[in-house]
Design a protein that fits this description.
This protein is mainly α and 148 residues long. The protein folds into two domains: 6-70, Helix Hairpins (Orthogonal Bundle); 95-139, no CATH class. 57% of the residues lie in helices and 0% in strands. It has helices at 6-10, 18-32, 41-57, 60-70, 95-109, 111-123, 132-139. The chain is elongated.
Length: 148
């Protein structure tokens, strides 16, 4: 779809300043204003085009976008493949990595591992993950005593 050139609607150049564009808009707005041309549909359509052109060209951000659209869209960098740094986390998984991962899962989640873990838990009277003593030493106070 072709982009409408609002510079031609206002009769100004793309390099003209905002002040020149404003003066051109005001001159055309006076000429085609519906109050001065009652019942003239062509003047009403022209006034609408002039208003759209001023909305775009009167705002710096919108004007920059419009200029890019007229030039064929935003400029993009062409794709260039260059050297990359491969870290162990970004490289593909090898067969040895896959074997190690499965071995680690099996050592933790196999039925034998779960059974031995449950037996150790029965035998142990203290929780190996209990960090209460370490916390109390760090904070410098003792919490409530546990009932045995």
């Amino acid at each position: 779809m072709a982009v409408r050139n609002y510079y031609t609607v206002l009769g100004v150049g793309q390099a003209d300043s905002k002040e020149i564009i404003r003066k051109a808009y005001r001159k055309l707005a006076k000429q085609y204003h519906p109050d001065l041309n009652p019942g003239d549909e062509a003047a009403a359509r022209k006034m609408q085009e002039i208003g759209e052109a001023w909305e775009v060209l009167g705002d710096e951000e919108n004007r920059k976008k419009h200029d890019q659209e007229l030039a064929g869209g935003p400029k993009k960098k062409p794709f260039t493949a260059g050297p990359t740094k491969t870290t162990p986390q970004s490289r593909p998984m090898t067969e040895a990595d896959f074997y190690n991962m499965i071995h680690n899962f099996d050592s933790v989640l196999s039925p034998d591992a779960i059974k031995s873990s449950a037996e150790k838990k029965k035998d142990a009277d203290a929780n190996p993950m209990d960090t209460t003593a370490m916390f109390e030493r760090f904070m410098g106070f003792q919490g409530p005593k546990k009932k045995k």
